[in-house]
From TrEMBL:
Protein name, entry field: Phage tail protein
Annotated Tail sheath protein C-terminal domain residues: 370-474
Pfam families linked: Phage_sheath_1C
Lineage: superkingdom: Bacteria
Family to which this protein belongs: Belongs to the myoviridae tail sheath protein family.
Amino acid sequence: MSEYIDYFGGPPASRFNLVEAAPENGVEADLLIPVPGGAPNERKAYWLVQDSGAYLLYYSLQLFFANGGGPCYIVSVGGYGDAIEADPLLAGLDALRKEQEPTMVVVPDAMLLKGTPESPAATAVAVQQAVLQHCGEVMKNRFAILDIYDGFRDRKDPSGDVIAKFRDALGVNNLHFAAAYYPWLDTTIVQESALSFLNVNDKGLLKTLLSADLKLDPALAPTDPIPRKGFDEKVAGVNSLDSKWELDGERLKTAEDVARAQLGLHQMLAKFSPVYATIITGIARRLNRLPPAAAMAGVYTSVDNARGVWKAPANVSLNAVIAPTVSISHAEQEDLNVTTSGKSINAVRAFIGSGVLVWGARTLDGNSLDWRYINVRRTMIMLEESLRLAMAAYVFEPNTANTWVTVKGMATNFLTGIWKRGGLAGASPEDAFSVFVGLGETMTAEDILEGRMNMTILVALSRPAEFIEITFQQQMQKS
């Protein structure tokens, strides 16, 4: 992350408004805070509405590295002052056309795009369709990892089934070049120590809530000097919440003085005010709610390095994750995994004793017997790219039998190495792959005259054991 920070800076300055929740809305409140002057157990519900700093890339990148991510390309399409819009994201996607190295594409900020009232996910899905086209038609050498718009919601949410909306809107093109994951994740990326009252916009409401919580009514002020000093410090601290924190040449002479004063006020409020602690915890919870694609990109990288691209990136635990935002049952996962449309969604599930696991390895083209599995699609991409780049060394070589033997030997040696490492299925190399090149096999005399060298390779790719069936029978006693 240090290199990213050197080029692009640190996290966004997130600001939240406390908005009184409407019970009839059906959306769960973020905070329950005691009512100032109300009954002892009376609580008021609030939503945390993010007013600024709503960007996902920085935290998603941290999640990527926490789960095994390595070197990656960052395509900057704007700064923290810019609104997240589809056109800059699409322009960033076009910039990747000139790059050969990327093998996966993740666009976390697409989840913040706003559509129409009738279809809030429309703009995000349009960007995802462009990503699919980029991977499957334009480049054909990379794989898209997609998030579900509003994927932190349960499928039974009053606003509708987010999975059904995603499947209906995505279309049918290039589905075998992508995988999608559900639900979003509650993570530990953002620490509460990195947050303070500066992350709350409405300082007036905050002062009212904290004054009531700390019992700062002047009529309740203690008369003894020592308690009175603490009371006055709390009053002064709460009153300074809406301060502009400008240098005054006296108490605040430098930026370090300002930071020190803000930290001192934050620590005082966190120590004495349960309401303040509740608000900070709520903000941290909101910022830590992240889409899973970045974590999965890290998992792909980790599995590739440890086992190879032919190993399915599933049954792997996620780091820096507390739990999925939605608990998924076995029956619910079956509907995610297998559907008549073929658009399989991979589940992220929490298991007792195992933690949070990735529990699915299918592409969005679940009805295809050839391209159903992520590792099969990515292995084929790897083989095609490796052999294509290796063949570039033989461009302009004589199109004769000697060259054909050399090319065939190169491809055979490469595929034998993949077979030995478990990437190809078969008891022997002959069962795992076949390489054909030469006149009468893959070329005609006309091909040679036109300067074409054609090579055909057949491979048997290994597939994951997705379902393991165990049969038990009761036998008669033998002794």
